[in-house]
Specification:
alpha/beta, 21% strand
Length: 314
């Protein structure tokens, strides 16, 4: 491992217990910074309500750490919006944000648009499918941003059990993202969960980053942040165990293709000859091909959007 990465691991990798909540609150009061929590959600009625309720109770009612919780619904066909609103979140539909630019499917699209409907100086992203959720996920990753002005982005790190086996989750991380990062961006080799959906960053950084519209958003954000602010401005915090719904192998294949595409663009800013992925499913007449397009679109830094610039002036 690079000497720089070893040093980073000793100085920029923490546990959620390293910063007691009262220290984080005191730092927030001194700095006057506000915190927004964003949950991108698509058909998550079974879990989104509990997550919102726990954050509201622990970090808004018990202590004033979080200033707003926004659930951005990206087209749910179940009761996600109703459950989230009943639990106390502000719910906004993806298509209602910046309607001038037609929305496309994808997690990155939702995260990008969320910058227009949140106000926090620090924005914390939490996936909406987490089970047995703890508010430590939020306070743990927001803590370094409030207590250390030299930190701009914090990723959560955790165990990801799969089928009762510890540490077997995160298959796309181990098979695609980690090899890519180690080979092409070795400074980022120290991140335990580079694709994790729980992270927080300063708005001043997020608004300068392009957002891949799909599954490549986490890798793209990490690589772009490295180039923009440097390794020492990035950090990670151990928040324990992350339990969530696991996807099947073919979905993971599509995710991997999008992540590779994101990396390829950052390596060469070129174009794939064929930005598509063909997979196979057994049908009545044998194996049948299914071809899926690979995310090829990226949203520009939010500071380039006129509506966002107007909001900042106002």
């Amino acid at each position: 491992m690079l000497e720089e990465v070893e040093r980073w691991l000793s100085t920029r990798s923490w546990s959620a217990t390293d910063r007691p909540l009262h220290h984080i609150l005191a730092a927030k009061q001194r700095s006057g910074q506000s915190v927004s929590v964003v949950l991108p959600a698509l058909n998550e009625e079974e879990t989104v309500g509990d997550i919102v309720a726990i954050i509201r109770h622990d970090l808004m009612q018990q202590v004033p750490l979080v200033d707003e919780i926004v659930v951005v619904d990206s087209g749910s066909t179940d009761g996600t919006s109703e459950v989230a609103a009943a639990a106390g979140a502000t719910v906004v539909h993806r298509d209602a944000i910046l309607p001038r630019i037609p929305a496309v499917p994808g997690k990155g699209e939702v995260l990008w648009r969320s910058l227009l409907v949140t106000t926090g100086d620090i924005v914390c992203f939490i996936d909406a499918d987490l089970k047995e959720f703890s508010s430590d996920f939020v306070s743990g990753i927001v803590g370094p941003l409030l207590t250390d002005p030299g930190v701009d982005l914090v990723k959560g790190m955790y165990d990801r059990p799969l089928g009762g086996a510890a540490g077997q989750g995160g298959r796309v991380t181990e098979l695609m993202a980690r090899p890519l990062l180690n080979m092409h961006w070795p400074q980022l080799a120290g991140f335990v969960q580079p694709l994790g959906g729980e992270y927080a960053a300063r708005r001043s950084l997020l608004e300068q980053l392009p957002f891949p519209v799909g599954y490549g958003v986490e890798l793209g954000m990490l690589v772009d942040a490295l180039h923009l602010v440097g390794l020492d401005a990035l950090a990670q915090v151990d928040v324990g165990v992350r339990k969530h719904r696991h996807q099947d192998g073919q979905a993971l294949g599509r995710m991997s293709a999008a992540i590779y595409r994101t990396a390829q663009l950052r390596l060469a800013r070129g174009h794939l000859v064929r930005p598509a992925l063909t997979q196979f499913e057994r049908g009545e007449d044998g194996f049948e091909p299914r071809t899926y397009s690979v995310d090829t679109e990226e949203r520009p830094p939010m500071v380039e959007i006129a509506e966002y610039a107007k909001r900042k002036v106002a």
